[in-house]
Structure formats: C-alpha cells, structure tokens
Amino acid sequence: MVDETIAGAAGVQESGRPVSGDRSGRALLAIAVLAVVLAITALFSLTWGASDASALGLVRSWLFGATPGNEALSMRDSVIVYDIRLPRIVMGMLVGAALAVSGAVMQGLFRNPLADPGLVGVSAGAGLGAVSVIVLGATVLAPLTALLGSYALPFAAFGGGLLTTIILYNVATRQGRTSIATMLLAGIALGAMAMALTGVLVYIADDRQLRDLTFWQLGSLAGATWLKIAGAGPIIILALATTPFMAKGLNALALGEATASHLGVPVQRLKYVAIVAVSAAIGASVAVSGGIGFVGIVVPHLLRLAIGPDNRYLLPASALLGACLLLLADAVSRTIVAPAELPIGIVTAAVGGPFFLWILLRKRGVVDL
Amino acid sequence: MIEARQVSVSIGSTRIVSDVDFIVRPGELAAIVGPNGSGKTTFLRALTGELAYSGQVSLNGRDAAKLKPWEAASIRAVLPQSTALSFPFTVREIVKLGMTGGRSGVLAGEGDRLPERALARVDLEGFAGRFYQELSGGEQQRVQLARVLCQVWAPVLDGQPRYLFLDEPVSSLDIKHQLIIMNIARDFARRGGGVVAILHDLNLTAMYADQICVMHRGKLAAAGAPQAVLTDDLIEKVFGCRLRVGAIPAANVPFVLPQSAVA
C-alpha cells in the first residue's frame, strides 16, 4: 500500500497526472460538472409546474423567436415563465448558493463541520430582523422603511444575523480557541431568544401580516418577484464575491488561529470579513425566503467527501451544489402536493435532519464536541 | 538575530513569565528546557507574537510586535505542540499550507514539488495521499514539521536569516525520528538560520544545542553552553531531583544515549 503510493507519487509528477494527495484536478472537474448540472436543472425548473410550458418549446422560442408554423410561447405561458418561474428560479439559485457558501465559511471560521447558520441561531437572528420590519415597518420602524425602501427587509435581516454572529463568536471563542460545545449551546440560547422576540412580534401582528409571516417562517420561494431579487440579489452576490479571497485564509485557519497567523494570514481581518459576509448572505436570504434549513450543512459536507476541504474549491462548488439542490427541493415542494405547494423549508428539513444525524453517527469519534 | 529583553507574560492576574532576556544568533540552535509549568511554552508564544507581553522582542532588528502577519511569516515558522484537525485534509494538503503566506525561498519552478521534498526530509515519503487524521501522533507531528519547513525552506533569504520556533518537536517521536528531526534543526542552523526549540530530553539537548536556556518558575535560571549549564546543582535546583551529570549506570543496566548514534 505504502510502496504503491511512493511509486505513484514519484511517477506521477513526470507524466503530468495528478500528484498523490493533491485533489485540485478532481475538484476543478467537479466544479465544471456541477456548473453543467445546475444549468440543466435551471432549464428544467422553468418547465416544471402546474402549467405545461415545455423545455423544448422554451428553447425553440429562444432560438427562433416566433416564426410561422412554429408557435412561440403563448401569452399565458410567457407570463408564467418570465414573471413567475424565472424570478423564482433566480432567487432559488441565489438563496441556495448563499446558504451553502455561508455554511462552508462558518464551518471554516469555527473549524467545525457542524457549524451552520441555521443551527447556531444566525438565521433566527436574521429572521427577527426581518419580522421586525414586516410587523413594525409601518409604525415604529417607518423611518427605516422610508429610507431603505425594498432594501429595508434584507438590511434588517442582515443586522439581526450580524449581531447574532458577533455575540456567538465572542461567547464561544476564548483566546483564539473556539469551544464547539459552547458554540452549539450558545447558538441554541441565542436562537431561543430571537424566537421569543419574534413570537412577541407575531403576537401583535395583524391578520394580513400574520399570513405573510406564517408562510415565510417555514421558508418558501413562492413569493419570488423581480423586485425582491433587486433588493436581496446584489447583497448576496456581493457577499459571495468576497469569499474567494477568504479561501486560503480559511484553509490555514483549519490549523488553529495561532498557526494561521504564523502562516501569514491576517486572522482578525479574515474573521471580521467572514462574519460580515455570512451575516449579509444569510440576512438577504432569510429576508426573501424565510428560514430554509440544512442546506448550509449538507452541501459542504457532501462536497468535502468528494473533493476534500480545500476552500478554494469547496466554496465555489458549494455555491453551485447549493443552488442546484435548492432548485430540486423547490421542484419537489411545488409538485408533491400540486396544485397546492409545500413550503420548501419542510422539504429541506425532511432531508437535512436525517442527514445531519447520519453525520453525527458517522463521525462520532472524530467530531470534537 | 532573535532578541528578547525583559519579557514578561501574565495570563489573568497570574504572572507566568518574568523578565526573561534571551538572544539567539543566526547559526545557533537554542534549547529551552525546564520542568512542566515553568513557562517554556508561554515564553515561546510571546516570542512568536501569540500572547501579549511586556518587554521587547525583535527579529533581525525589527520590533516583532510591529511586524504584519505576512512579514513575520517570511522571517520565521512555528511548530506547535500538537495540531488537531476537524476536516479531512490529506497530508500533502496540510504540508502545502506552509506555503500560504510566507516565502519558502525555493526557485520559481520548484514550488510544486516542495511538499514532497519536505515530506521526504521528515521521513514521510509516500504519505502525501494519506489522510492526516488517520496518522499516529508522531506522524502528525512530522507532517506539521514538514509544513513548517515548507514555509522557511531556505534558512537565509535575501541575506536575512530566518528562524524556526519548535515547541517540543520530538516529544512524541521514536528515537530514530528524534535524531532525524534534531538533525534537520541543526542543519537549518548550520546553513545560517536560527532555531529555538523547547526540549525535554536533556541528553538530546546536550548533544544538539549551542545554547541552553533553563526556565524555572517563569524565570531564566541559567543560560549558556551545555557544559556550563548542565550541572548537578542546577538540575537539583530546577527539576527538584538529585541526578548526577555524566554518571554511568551500573554495569548490568543497559542504557542507550542519542550520542552513541553511528552516523
């Protein structure tokens, strides 16, 4: 076994095949495959649903436009595709990417595969911010909504997420060492406090707000509109755009904060940027789609098994797979009880919960609690 | 040159290290020895900027506290006592992290193969594809050393000497690998770098160190060449047990010293 590896490592370099222990080639291939799969999933998502606008018809209309003898999309189909399904798909991809990448970044930051914005209360904090705007937007928080317009909701969610993450980090980290038990327990406490305050707001909400809230709290892409995308999209894209610059630093951070610093990583700055980016991405996602759980833990974990934990590849791959999985979950949520639809948070929790248990059982010896 | 003047470290209200002066010149291997809890690791952490301290630490004449992380990383590399990981990195991926921010100092085309060369130096040839988490403690420690070597592969860069800070580099190793690792450290110093190592084995220390700093209750109890420092009196005072330096055991008791290694 060892002899084989030696031969492999020596012979490999000359022939230009991958070097033993170097998974970057495999990772790049996986990223390319995921990009293609995402494109196909997105195309088919446009055609899934109660109306029967077909993928073929859609492509034909893109390629040839409306030509005689080749019916373009009917008016009704066109509205369904461009004003209902397309924004929903774009939002699904943005939110899926945001959730998965935030999970990966948080896991890197806390040096633990169990850290997830949903599990440690960050989503709940963001939710509190969002609910505040929904319920109090016309009264107490009117100045905020007047000032920020459609950005008020994502901004408030971002604030709630940021505050929760900062408290969490300071509670769980002592002298550069993060206690995972403390982190998870503090996350539960913070989540409970945010939920309690959210509960108060729900209690004082009126009937119309209540209907908005209920669906939103379970997590759903059903309310996707181009307007919402215009509010949350830029924030998510900006947050995701910072993550490639964190990748090397997060890799070094796996060895501990002191060692990362000895390796030349500006650890404090990295932590601040990571916390703000995660809070922004989660805040914006929660603002438009509510609490969709487990994407942030399932996606990076699966990818680490396949391509390893190197964040230079893990982060972009997480974005693609997160987007892809959320589109699939959304397809399930709108077809499984058609013509009604299930909130997507229920679908991701139903799949993610057992998956999370499986990680715990599998890694019982390895995960340091 | 590494120069520490009147370095003191307090954690909470407890003073762990008081007023330590310490100088390591390029070409030297300095060993820090002392009983458990005497402040060795705390002092090393102050030298590497991990802990806040009072006093002065300078590297090649520059105030260590004012170096940016990437500047410090190009002057010195640090090996901690042990490193646990939660993610499934391969050995090669870990070693390559040594090239994150510092400057290894190899020629442009040789960087790609540096992890393999560093692994070969610590006697882990062929381990590149293994998972770090599946290795034994001693093997993990050698992987970390290979990573540290990658960071400052050339002991002198741009005319500036560079340094290795090693916290108990051989404590979990078998005798063969203790010798290999200590030879790497001595070789690094011989080629113009400087090494600071916390050691527990007094025989290895006597064999390899140019300078021994003995710490006792947070203070420097003695410093100097091995012959001057390792005396019966000092060992009794510092370690609290009566040992005789250079005494040979009774004829029927086997003993194996690293000094007896045949090159």
TrEMBL record, chain A:
One of its GO terms (cellular component) is plasma membrane. The chain crosses the membrane at residues 27-50, 89-110, 122-145, 151-172, 184-205, 225-247, 272-301, 313-332, 344-361. Signal peptide: none annotated. Keywords: Cell membrane, Membrane, Transmembrane, Transmembrane helix, Transport. It is found in: Cell membrane. It comes from the Bacteria. The keyword Cell inner membrane does not apply. One of its GO terms (biological process) is siderophore-iron import into cell. InterPro entries: ABC_BtuC-like, ABC_transptr_permease_BtuC. It is a multi-pass membrane protein. Its main location: membrane. The keyword Membrane applies. SUPFAM superfamilies: ABC transporter involved in vitamin B12 uptake, BtuC. GO terms for molecular function: transmembrane transporter activity. Belongs to the binding-protein-dependent transport system permease family. FecCD subfamily. This is Iron ABC transporter permease. It comes from Aminobacter anthyllidis.
TrEMBL record, chain B:
This is Heme ABC transporter ATP-binding protein. Part of the ABC transporter complex HmuTUV involved in hemin import. Responsible for energy coupling to the transport system. NCBIfam families: PRK13548.1. Residues 2-242 form the ABC transporter domain. PANTHER family: HEMIN IMPORT ATP-BINDING PROTEIN HMUV (PTHR42794:SF1). The keyword Transferase does not apply. GO terms for molecular function: ATP binding; ATP hydrolysis activity. It comes from the Bacteria. Belongs to the ABC transporter superfamily. Keywords: ATP-binding, Nucleotide-binding, Translocase, Transport. The lineage of its organism: Bacteria, Pseudomonadati, Pseudomonadota, Alphaproteobacteria, Hyphomicrobiales.
